[in-house]
């Protein structure tokens, strides 16, 4: 019993010890479990932070390639919500080409090496737009070597791709610029070679022409120049022409050369011709096919002209006065050299034309002065005898007062009186021509002067129709008496030219700082050969005894005194036009 009791006691003690041992073990295991749970919780939080809150686009896929976790940055950049993509295949979010790359290149690389780095792909964002990415991923493989799961990170490749594209584009543009620049340099070099050859050729041509025209002036210079231009430039025609003062479309040649031979001058209408273009533009160039541009130009068609270069001539004030042109039956090649030469010689021709005009005016003035002094002497010499003759005739008439008026003696006395009166009038005109007294200048309107002149010729009009084309004009400064005499003279000349039947047209207008008056008659006109002498003293186209030839010389002197110009334009068979240009009165100039 005692043994049983001891046994029971021992058993109880052993059970107690075992219980205590288990208790201690359970206590230790509880502590470990708690630590493990905490570590697991820490690991879970860390994994969640890595998976979701890391500031990068990351995701985790399962064995089937489905998304099991994505970072917040991933969702933000792509615009998806987490519930929309979890469980979806990552390959399904890629565009067609990238999906193929992912299946055929990325997955095999993961199976073989367990990782791949910076694979360029395009993923489709929630709004449908593509996003270029560089994908780097690592995979956990099963014992069988299959992908168990993978973790991937990718970066936005768009900016980098754009930079790369821009770099490639810039490189391509740079290469294109280098290519173009090289081509331009090569072309410039070729042009330079050609230009050097042309320059040497131009120097030779210029030297030859300069030697050919050296020392020549006037008509000799013009004819020499057109001949040497024609020969040196191998052109068929070379012409120098002047524009008609009244009709700018009409050109009067000064010098003409055809195949090295100087030709007779002529006038032509430049309308619808290359010369008209030259008049408008200043320089006109048709290297070939000029006939096709001017099918209505009978002149160039009849001359079989293929090429044309013309340049306008200007006086020292810049006003156009004529043209210099060359024409050929073959196309032109080196036009740059030729146009430069044409411009050089155009300046020389214009200067010579202006020099000749000034020389003519100077000669005219000197002639007028010389003739004026002579006229004054003649007038004084014949005035006294005329006065005596007139007194004696009057005394004779008194003594013969008893005779009938129709007796032969009285008729002869009357004839003597008429001749004395005519001689006296000539003497008065000579004195008027010779006297250059100071002008009595006032501000006046030329239209009023014209009307006063018309009043003075009422008796001489006969069957002449008067046509007034009077426009409002500014005042001029002038001597009203002398200007009235000027227009009376022009009106009477016009009436005489029409032989009492026709139309006298008087036009006034203002242009280029000048008041212009045109007096046009419908008479037979003036012969071309007489135009240059029309203002010479004692020159007249009237019958002997019908005029002294001083009227237009006096008119010329009056206009010159007023610092103006008087010109004559003759249209054969259609009358004559005199043009008077007088400067407008400027108040500021006083």
What's the SSE blueprint?
Layout: H1 2-53, E1 57-61, E2 67-70, H2 72-78, H3 82-85, H4 96-113, E3 115-124, E4 130-141, E5 147-156, H5 158-213, H6 218-232, E6 237-243, E7 250-258, E8 261-263, E9 267-269, H7 274-281, E10 283-286, H8 290-293, H9 298-302, E11 307-314, E12 320-328, H10 335-399, H11 408-434, E13 442-444, H12 446-456, E14 463-470, E15 476-478, H13 480-497, E16 501-511, E17 514-520, H14 551-561, E18 565-570, E19 576-583
Parallel strand pairs: 14-16
Antiparallel strand pairs: 1-2, 1-5, 3-4, 4-5, 6-7, 6-12, 7-8, 7-9, 10-11, 11-12, 13-15, 16-17, 17-19, 18-19
Please provide a written account of the structure.
- The strands form 4 sheets. Strands 6, 7, 8, 9, 10, 11 and 12 form a 7-stranded antiparallel β-sheet that branches. Strands 2-1-5-4-3 form a 5-stranded antiparallel β-sheet. A 5-stranded mixed β-sheet has the order 14-16-17-19-18.
- The protein has helices at residues 2-53, 72-78, 82-85, 96-113, 158-213, 218-232, 274-281, 290-293, 298-302, 335-399, 408-434, 446-456, 480-497, 551-561, and strands at 57-61, 67-70, 115-124, 130-141, 147-156, 237-243, 250-258, 261-263, 267-269, 283-286, 307-314, 320-328, 442-444, 463-470, 476-478, 501-511, 514-520, 565-570, 576-583.
- The termini are far apart.
- The model is unreliable at 1-8 (pLDDT under 50).
- It folds into 4 domains: 1-53; 54-156, 2-Layer Sandwich (Beta-Lactamase); 212-353, Beta-Lactamase, CATH 3.30.450; 437-583, Histidine kinase-like ATPase, C-terminal domain (Heat Shock Protein 90, 2-Layer Sandwich), CATH 3.30.565.10.
- 25% of the residues are buried.
- It contains 14 helices and 19 strands.
- The protein is of the alpha+beta class.
- Helix 10 crosses helix 11.
């Amino acid at each position: 019993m005692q043994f049983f009791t001891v046994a029971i006691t021992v058993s109880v003690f052993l059970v107690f010890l075992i219980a205590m041992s288990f208790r201690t073990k359970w206590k230790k295991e509880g502590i470990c479990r708690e630590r493990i749970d905490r570590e697991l919780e820490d690991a879970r939080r860390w994994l969640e932070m890595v998976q979701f809150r890391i500031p990068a686009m990351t995701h985790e896929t399962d064995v089937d390639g489905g998304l099991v976790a994505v970072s917040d940055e991933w969702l933000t950049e792509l615009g998806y919500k987490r519930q929309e993509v979890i469980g979806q295949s990552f390959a399904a979010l890629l565009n067609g080409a990238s999906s193929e790359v992912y299946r055929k290149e990325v997955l095999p690389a993961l199976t073989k090496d367990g990782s791949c780095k910076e694979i360029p792909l395009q993923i489709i964002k929630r709004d449908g737009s593509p996003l270029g990415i560089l994908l780097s991923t690592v995979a956990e493989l099963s014992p069988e070597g299959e992908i168990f799961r993978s973790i991937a990170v990718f970066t936005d490749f768009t900016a980098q791709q754009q930079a790369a594209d821009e770099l490639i584009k810039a490189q391509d543009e740079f290469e294109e610029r280098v290519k173009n620049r090289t081509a331009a340099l090569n072309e410039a070099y070729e042009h330079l070679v050609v230009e050097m050859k042309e320059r040497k050729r131009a120097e030779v041509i210029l030297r030859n022409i300069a030697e050919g025209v050296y020392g020549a002036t006037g008509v000799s210079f013009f004819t020499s120049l057109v001949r040497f231009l024609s020969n040196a430039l191998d052109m068929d025609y070379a012409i120098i022409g002047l524009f008609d003062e009244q009709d700018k479309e009409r050109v009067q040649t000064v010098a003409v050369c055809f195949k090295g031979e100087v030709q007779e001058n002529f006038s032509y209408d430049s309308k619808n011709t290359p010369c008209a273009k030259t008049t408008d533009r200043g320089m006109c160039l048709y290297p070939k096919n000029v006939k096709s541009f001017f099918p209505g130009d009978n002149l160039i068609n009849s001359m079989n002209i293929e090429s044309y270069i013309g340049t306008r001539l200007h006086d020292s004030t810049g006003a156009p006065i004529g043209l210099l042109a060359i024409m050929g039956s073959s196309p032109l090649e080196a036009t740059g050299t030729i146009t430069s030469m044409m411009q050089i010689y155009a300046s020389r021709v214009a200067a010579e034309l202006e020099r000749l005009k000034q020389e003519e005016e100077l000669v005219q003035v000197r002639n007028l002065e010389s003739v004026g002094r002579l006229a004054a002497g003649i007038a004084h010499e014949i005035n006294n005898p005329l006065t005596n003759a007139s007194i004696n005739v009057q005394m004779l008439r008194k003594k013969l007062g008893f005779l009938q008026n129709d007796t032969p003696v009285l008729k002869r006395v009357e004839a003597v009186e008429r001749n004395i009166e005519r001689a006296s009038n000539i003497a008065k005109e000579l004195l008027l021509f010779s006297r250059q007294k100071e002008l009595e200048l006032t501000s006046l309107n030329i239209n009023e002067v014209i009307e006063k002149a018309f009043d003075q010729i009422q008796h001489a009009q006969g069957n002449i129709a008067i046509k007034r084309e009077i426009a409002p004009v500014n005042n001029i400064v002038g001597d009203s008496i002398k200007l009235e005499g000027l227009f009376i003279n022009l009106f009477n000349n016009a009436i005489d030219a029409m032989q009492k039947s026709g139309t006298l047209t008087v036009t006034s207008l203002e242009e280029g700082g000048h008041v212009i008056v045109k007096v046009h008659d419908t008479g037979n006109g003036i012969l071309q050969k007489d135009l240059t002498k029309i203002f010479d003293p004692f020159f007249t186209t009237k019958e002997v005894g019908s005029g002294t030839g001083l009227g237009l010389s006096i008119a010329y002197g009056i206009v010159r005194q007023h610092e103006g110009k008087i010109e004559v334009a003759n249209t054969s068979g259609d009358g004559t036009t005199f043009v008077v240009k007088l400067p407008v009165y400027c108040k500021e100039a006083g």
